């Protein structure tokens, strides 16, 4: 079992790396020293990268997710004996692997957050019948675009690390799948899943834990940023205002995945949302008074308490859809804790309606969309694009163009940009100011 967990697609016998290091340590080093990982510092989480030194970027978000995930892997490893037995390669929780997955889970996000992803996907679907999807792009980066010494195809991570990133174990686009893996990488991922004898549609425990910890960070850290920015006001008038509550309810009811997974249908959703926000306000008041009405300290304490609230409820149960498999979720009295899952979902929707849908954020996102579309238009013709793309991108395309079309190269190039770099290239192409040939990309 150890051998197939540490299996490398391009180095089966582990002869291309002579260092005396554990295989997962090699994965970690390859990942954090990659340009794609560094570029996360310039990609938006909620607020645009560069909006202020306080706010999270994709990089700091990924680091925070990795910390929660690593600690939870250690804790669960002590609680559940089967994790330390060779039951199945997908039913393990190695802290180092979960940490790697958390650090890599957002590599595929393009500039300008989710709006950037939507724009690229719309362009590809409308013009080429293809897809752009952040999780699929993770694999394109890890398995092809990034390079390491002695390899021209990706970072060649272990099977355990690759499958721990696999939140959506499906071929993107097949049978209407909106999230998954591109066809160019799916063959290798499917091979690894078959090698492990993974049940169809099931994720490894390491992938499940990474995904849940991502949700915990989103529903706590992003709200902290929103409070700091003044988008979320911790007052009774703001949190219990009927329009805000109605907007959160609307986000839930218009999200089919949430409605199905969390069984909202027969519940009074408005009442549940009101209760969560009311309790959130009461908790804030208590913390604020306890810490001498120090807003900064109280805000951090509030975030810490919510992370702890969610983390201490993580457990493992039998998968209700496949009893031979396991599911990582919030657990109470041996069964899935739907109340905590719904509370987290309400806080995620609160972050969405107060920040992402804020009109100022929408203005910036509209501006970002316009820039990305103009960048695409300037490069989509191959003859014109070859004149303005960096030479190393053109050389790589010429070497591998039998495997993917020109439009995928453009998607890869734009998706790899930071927010700042996307604006820089746009300015060079379309703004009135003149650039300099001595500026380096």
UniProtKB/TrEMBL annotation:
<dbReference type="InterPro" id="IPR026875">
    <property type="entry name" value="PHydrolase_assoc_dom"/>
</dbReference>
<dbReference type="InterPro" id="IPR050135">
    <property type="entry name" value="dGTPase-like"/>
</dbReference>
<protein>
    <submittedName>
        <fullName>Deoxyguanosinetriphosphate triphosphohydrolase-like protein</fullName>
    </submittedName>
</protein>
<dbReference type="InterPro" id="IPR006674">
    <property type="entry name" value="HD_domain"/>
</dbReference>
<dbReference type="GO" id="GO:0008832">
    <property type="term" value="F:dGTPase activity"/>
</dbReference>
<dbReference type="InterPro" id="IPR003607">
    <property type="entry name" value="HD/PDEase_dom"/>
</dbReference>
<dbReference type="GO" id="GO:0006203">
    <property type="term" value="P:dGTP catabolic process"/>
</dbReference>
<dbReference type="Pfam" id="PF01966">
    <property type="entry name" value="HD"/>
</dbReference>
<keyword id="KW-0378">Hydrolase</keyword>
<dbReference type="InterPro" id="IPR006261">
    <property type="entry name" value="dGTPase"/>
</dbReference>
<feature type="domain" description="HD">
    <location>
        <begin position="58"/>
        <end position="219"/>
    </location>
</feature>
<dbReference type="Pfam" id="PF13286">
    <property type="entry name" value="HD_assoc"/>
</dbReference>
